[in-house]
Each structure stands twice: as structure tokens, then as C-alpha cells.
Amino acid sequence: MSLFNVYPLFDVNLVKAHDVFVYDENKTKYLDLYGGHAVMSIGHTHPTYVKNVSKQLKNIGFYSNSIQNPLQQELVAKIQKLSGCDTYSLFLCNSGAEANENALKLASFHTKKKKVIAFKNSFHGRTSAAVAATDNPKIVAPINGQQEVDFFELGDLKGVEASLKENDTCAIIIECIQGVGGLDESTIEFYQGLEKLAKQYEVLLIADEIQSGFGRTGDFFAFQKHQIQPDIISMAKGMGNGFPVGGILIHNKIEASFGLLGTTFGGNHLACAASLAVLEVLEQEKLLQNANKMCSYFLEKSKSVSKLKKVKGRGLMLGLEFDFPIKELRKALIFKHHIFTGSAKNPNLLRILPPLTIQASHIDMLFDALNKEL
Ligand SMILES: Cc1ncc(COP(=O)(O)O)c(C=O)c1O
């Protein structure tokens, strides 16, 4: 038997990790500015995380959603405290795609409609409704084609309104800052206009915060910069710092009923312990403030790089856009300079998604390497 060959792999075998560094089997140390695809929020093997998850594992790791689990209540309270989102309830699941799938399904239940509005260059995951709302025909199978989705350019309020007038839409789903698509973000007027249209036409506004949430942009959620209030907020990645956990925050105007949504593994004891540890560290170590501080430092340092076209993103969801494909540069960063970075749909964009614990000296390491390579 072999592995189903769907991932192009770098020839690196990581066996150990600490904070912003990962180590391979030959003890080579790499700086992790990719965070395993924006997943590492509080840093690898953070002591609080290891302690709390280990302790939970020794007590009880899992039971189904048929019994009381006070850790879930604790998680609700802590997310509410740190995000300031206090008119929502929480449904827990296991991944980003699953969070969006539940968000879209809930929007359809609530409005009794089925069309979705999404945006060009979006990525919402690979399950049925989520992949149909993803702007990448290569990963949409014929079985997902039955889903009705209208795609618009980010910023195209007129197009969105024309589509809403047909009165068959259940949801507008949007990444306020696009992740995989390449860190594009529209204006405050656009996001507020979208919120207004959603209300006017009685469709649900879903903010996909899978990648941008849990402090990555320097705000708890990226949409908060635009002062909007989505009806559903989907979360995953940084929520568990590597433990598979996802969830949706659901506005209180949407009613729950037994059996409406469900999952075997979602919200299990270990997942809750992992996410609670993340929130504790985000708060204690003031990591949102650090994300903003390190962003300013990054922007300053980026001025030293020749051939740089643009810096994109905010907080620690950043990208360096060049006027050439970055594929070879990314490889040189890994194999010559031992620095992991990310790529995007835009072939010229190098993505920087480090743990939120990163310090100025680590950013210096990236810019020293870039200046040597370019
Ligand atoms: C914005 C966004 N939504 C959804 C997903 C899907 O998450 P998952 O891979 O956990 O299913 C991703 C993953 O990269 C993402 O970046």
C-alpha cells in the first residue's frame, strides 16, 4: 500500500519543534514563518499548551456530544471575552471546511433558500458546499457542481445586489482578507455595504475567519477592523495551535433545534483543552499586540528589499509580492537559509504566517536571507 499522492512535498522530515523553530531528523534548525499554513498561533510546543493538553489526556480525552462537557462552556466564555462578540453562540467541529459547510448549511436552513454568493479568488475548503464556494474549478468535482454559487470581484457591491434581487440567495460568504487567494482586502465601505445588503435582502453574512481569526491580523477577527457584525463567523486553524478543531459563532437571531447540526468528534475534551490553552496564552502574552508590533517592524524592514513590488496583508498575515514567480526563492529560503514561508494562488507572492510569538530578531533573519538571495 502507498499514500494517495496528492501533496507535492518538500524533502524535509520535522521531528521536533519549539516556539518559532522546527528541527529535522538531522537536527537542522528552521525558522517557521509559515506556521504549518497559518495554524501555529501561540508557537510550537508552548509549555501551557503541552501541560493543559497532556493533563486533559490523562483525565478524559474524548466522549461524544451526548453528555455534559463544561470545557465547551468555558470555551464559549473565553472566546466571548477575547473577541468581544457577545451576541453569538458556538457550534464546535473539527476543521475549516467543516466549519464553512455547517455555516452554509445553517444559512440555508434559516432562510430556506439555496444560492450562495462568494468572491473571486476565495478559498473556503474542500467539502461539498465549501468547495463550490471556492474559486478554483480544479478542485470542484462534478458532484459539487449542483451547488448554485455566484462569484463576484472583491468590491463589486453592484454585482452582489443584482444577484440578491433574484431572491434565491441564502448566504454571502467572504474572507475579509483572502488567504490562499493572495491577501487581497477591499474597503471598509465595501464590507459595510455588504452587511447592509445582507440585512436588506434577508440573507446571512458569513465571515470566513478560518485563517484570519484568533488574532492573526492583530484584531481577534479580521472583520472587526471594518466594524461589521456577520451573522456567522467560521474559525479553525489558529484556534487549536495544531490540534484539529473548528467552530462557528452563530448570531442569536438564528435558532437552534435538536439535531439541526451535529458531529461525533467536534468539541471533544482534548480539542477544548487545546483551544482554551491557546486563548489563555493569547491573553497572557498579549499576542494580538505583538502581532501589530511585529507587523510595523516587518513593514519597516521590507523597505530594504530590492525587487519588492508590494507588501500585502496586516498583523501577521503578510505577503511580499515580487515581479517574478517566488517558487525558486521559496526553495532557496528553505534549503539554503532554513526558513519556511508560504506560497499563494498568486505565483509572485511569498506568504508570511508565523506563530504570533515571533520577535524582531526572527524578522531580521528573513530579511537578511532575502537580501542575500536577491
Ligand atoms: C480561509 C479558509 N477557509 C477555509 C479553509 C479550509 O480549512 P481546512 O483545510 O481546515 O478544511 C482554509 C484552509 O486553508 C482557509 O484558508
Descriptive terms for the model:
374 residues; Aspartate Aminotransferase, domain 2; Aspartate Aminotransferase, domain 1; 7-stranded mixed β-sheet; binds pyridoxal-5'-phosphate; alpha/beta; 11 helices
Tell me what you see in this structure.
This protein is an alpha/beta fold and 374 residues long. It has two domains: 48-284, Type I PLP-dependent aspartate aminotransferase-like (Major domain) (Aspartate Aminotransferase, domain 2, 3-Layer(aba) Sandwich); 286-354 and 368-374, Aspartate Aminotransferase, domain 1 (Alpha-Beta Complex), CATH 3.90.1150. The chain is 34% helix and 18% strand. The protein contains eleven helices and 14 strands. The chain has helices at residues 35-38, 47-59, 70-83, 96-111, 128-132, 157-164, 188-200, 269-284, 287-302, 327-335, 360-373; strands spanning 14-18, 21-24, 29-32, 88-93, 115-119, 149-152, 169-174, 204-208, 232-235, 246-251, 308-314, 317-322, 339-340, 349-352. A seven-stranded mixed β-sheet has the order 4-10-9-8-7-5-6, sandwiched between helices. A four-stranded mixed β-sheet has the order 1-2-3-13. Strand 5 (115-119), helix 5 and strand 6 form a beta-alpha-beta unit. Helix 2 (47-59) runs antiparallel to helix 8, helix 6 packs parallel to helix 7 and helix 9 runs parallel beside helix 11 (360-373). The termini are far apart. The relative contact order is 0.17. Bound molecules: pyridoxal-5'-phosphate. Residues 95-97, 100, 123-125, 175, 179-180, 208, 210-211, 236 line the site of pyridoxal-5'-phosphate.
